[in-house]
Structures are given as structure tokens and as C-alpha cells.
Amino acid sequence: MNYAYLFRATLPETALEVAALLVVVVDLGFLRKAALKVRVAVAALLGVAGCGAALWALHLSAGAGYSFEGDLLLAQGGYAAVAQTGILALTALTLLLLIGSVFTRHVGEFVAVLLMAASGGLLVAAAQDLLVIFVGLELLSLGLYILTAFAKSSGKSAEAALKYYLFGAMSAAFLLFGFSYFYGLTGATQLSGIQDAIVQSGPSPLFYVAWIMVVAGLGFKIAVVPFHLWAPDAYEGAPAPAAAFIASVSKVASFALLLTIASNWLTFQPRLTSGLMALAVDLHAYDQTWTRLAAVLLIVAAASMVVGNLAALAQTSVRRLLAYSAIAHAGYILLGIATLPHYSTAIADFPLIASKMKSVGISANAVLYYVLTYGLTAIGAFGVVSVVERATGSDRIDSFLGLHKRNPLLAAVLLVLFLSLAGIPPLVGFWAKFNLFAAVLGVSAGPVPFALVALAVAMSAVSLYYYLQVLKRAYVMPAVDESPIKAHTVTMAVLVGIAASVVVLGCFPALLQGWIESFYPRF
Fold first, then answer.
1. Residue 133 has pLDDT above 80, yes or no
2. Helix 205-222 / helix 155-186 crossing angle, nearest 10 deg
3. Domain residue limits at 227
4. What is the CA radius of gyration of the chain?
5. Does 65 fall in a domain?
6. Residue range 221-230: average pLDDT?
7. Average pLDDT in the chain
8. Is residue 499 part of a domain?
9. Is residue 484 part of a domain?
10. Is the pTM of this model over 0.85?
11. What is the DSSP string of 141-154?
């Protein structure tokens, strides 16, 4: 094993781990007796510097990857680079929103755990092997459990962390069982090796059982129905920065992993050295396998869109409303992954195969665009909620009464972010949904993609109603208490920056689209 090669491939993760240790040393060794606000600011800024160093390291290690005995374990470039860059940027924003928070005196430990969880997210986004996937997911998940319980004076925080941990342990068991079956059936742990084995020998019934177990395990990570029961309590009970981290960074890492699995298993990777006759046989076998695998994802996606949006209608807590909204958005994104273009048995010439591979790239870009813009908007939304919650002591919808008078700038940020989540043009949320739904319809002109997109559009209309309920209280209904709501200068600057980004990226969607496409291989 070439350890220098491995160190280069994991340089971004190493940068985050070093930053985490540095934060603990500085906070506990030099700032133990300093004011809490000073400690929070220093720890957060050191964490942001660590994210910047990791981003620089990611640029240095571009294209490195890591292989062991011919098996690719960590990918670089493509999906991985986009997702890892997004994870680092969203982590930095979460740390900036931490400034001004007072939910714990153990700020050094909080920032260190958050950075270590982010390093797990980086591993998950680049993983190409079952063992690396599991290690990365556990590093990410253990950090999230701890972050959820960090508000020690809050009973809701402890309850949310316990539920999160118990559901997480169960999902890890399902995931590990599924992985063990894949290894037992194929003798491989590398994703492309599993695909090759299934293409050659054909899928057995146990293969589909293993796939259902993996969907259950990963479904917990992205909070889709019926694996979503932990999400409302975790979003409500966790400290606001932790909830923002769960809603953004965890989602980006998990969906990047699903996209990696989908691109390896759910889309046929033709061996161009094969003859056309052998290729046709492979296509026929894999076309049938894809249909069954995709059906599981489509059912989960449709259920998440319906349950998430309808359950959000009954919520009086804005945090729980955002949790059910996140479940619905996960359903939209999963719809894009489940309908990645696959290859029909009618394809028997390489130009058409190349065309299909290019359409896979278009669909993948739409998924990445959606998850990145959703993560950005979710962090801003939780930032606004945290400011209102600190001022009023509650996150109930009625706490937002008269917000436009109590803090007009904060109300404007809330307006932009919630309308973007609802998919209102010209904000970036509209283009995220438009690109994703267009990619789904571009797969096939059949009734199933059309029905799923129609369902998604109808559920988006439902989501507009509950977002407007919050905005109605902020702008229309009179305030019970008209005393000003003040936010920390850094917090307000970050929230305004996020809202401005949502507007700019909505008016110029090609900015983000072009950046994502620059990482994707051309065909």
C-alpha cells in the first residue's frame, strides 16, 4: 500500500481533522477563561479556516483518487468534487451562523465534532467501495448524533438525539446486512465490481433483498418515507446550527452517495471492447434488473413527496415544518436519481450509447444542482428561525407575527428563502425543480415519468400553502409584541449573503450549472 498516495487522496479530510484538533487545543488550552462570545467566535473562525484549507487541499488533490490492487476506493472529480466542494462551503456557512449562539459552553468540542462529521461527509461523497462507504457514513452519523444532543439544558435535544441514535443504529444494521449480501453474492466490495458480477451471472432474489436493505439504510440518512420518523424530532430538538448541518451537509453527502451507487448499478456501463452481440445480451439482462431496482426508489420518492408535504400542513412548529419539507424535497431529489436514463435492449450501436451516457450526465447535474441549492436555502432558513427563536423563546409559527416590523431585513430574507423552497421564479429553487423535472421527462415520454412529475408539481403547490402561512404571519398579521428582534452582525451578514445568492443564482442559473458541468466528464 502506497501511504503517500493515500495521504494525497485524503488531504481534504486530513485538513479538517487537523483543524478540529487545533480548535480543541486553542479553546481548552488558551481561551478557557475567556468570555463565551469570544470563544465561540474564535472556534467558528478556526473551523472556517479549516474548511478553506480543505477546499485548497481538494484543489491540490484533484484527479488523485485512490485505488488498491486495481480497485477504486475513493473517486476524485465528477460527482465527488462537486459534492465535496458543496459540503465544505455549507459547513463554513454553518460555522459562521454559530457565532452569536449561546446554547453550550463547550464550543470547542462542538466545532471539532462538526468538522469531523464533515470529514465523514467528504469520505461518503467520494466512496466507491462498500467498506469505505460504511466507515464514512458512521463517521458522519456519530458526529450528527452528538451534535443533536449538544444543548444539554434542553430536554428536547436529549430526546431528539436518543431517537436519532436508535433509528440510526437500526438503519446501520440494515445497511451492513445489505452490504454483506452483496459481497456474498459477488465476492466484491467495489461498486463497479459488483455491477460486473451481476451482469455476468444475473441477479438472484437475494440481490433484490439486499437492495431493499440498502435502500432502507440509506433512506434513513436522507429521511425519506417510511424511514423519516426521526427527522421532525431531530430538527426540532437539535441546536439550530446542528439542525442546519443535518439539513444541508448530511443531505449533500448522502445524495452524492446515492448518485454514485445509481451511476454504478442503475445505469449500464458498456464495455466498448465487447462485440455488439455480447453487448445486446448484457443490455437485455441489465434492463430488467434496472426496472426492478428503480421501482423501489420510485415508490419511496412518491410516498415522500406526498407524506412530507401533507404532514407539513398540520405543523405549528416552523422547525418541524422544515423537517417535513425536507422529507418532501428528498422525494423530489430521489425521483431524479430513480429515473436516471438506462439503456434499452433496442440500443445496438455505440453512438446511441454515447448519447445515453451524455443524458445520464444531464440528469446527474440536475440532481446535484437541486441538492446544493436546497442545502444553501435550508441553512438560511434555519438561521432565520434561530434568530427568531432566541428573541421569542419559541419556534412556533405565531412567533413570526409582525416580523417585517420587528426586523424588516430578517423578514425579507425569510421571504426570499421560503419562496425559493416553494419553487417560485425567478429564485434558484424554481430552476432546481425545473431542471430536475425536465430531466425526468427527458428520460421517456411514457406515462410513468409524466405522472410522477405531475404529482411533484401538485405537491409543490401544496408546499406553497404552508410556506405562505409563515410569510402571512411575518407580513400580514399584526404583531402581539412589536419590540425589535436583533441579530448578531455576522449572523445577519451571512443570512443576507445567502438570500442574495439565492436571488442571483435564480436570475443567472447558468452560473451554477456551468460550474457543475465543468466537473463532469464530457462524452
1. yes
2. 160
3. 1-257
4. 23
5. yes
6. 89
7. 85
8. no
9. no
10. yes
11. HHHHHHHHT--TT-
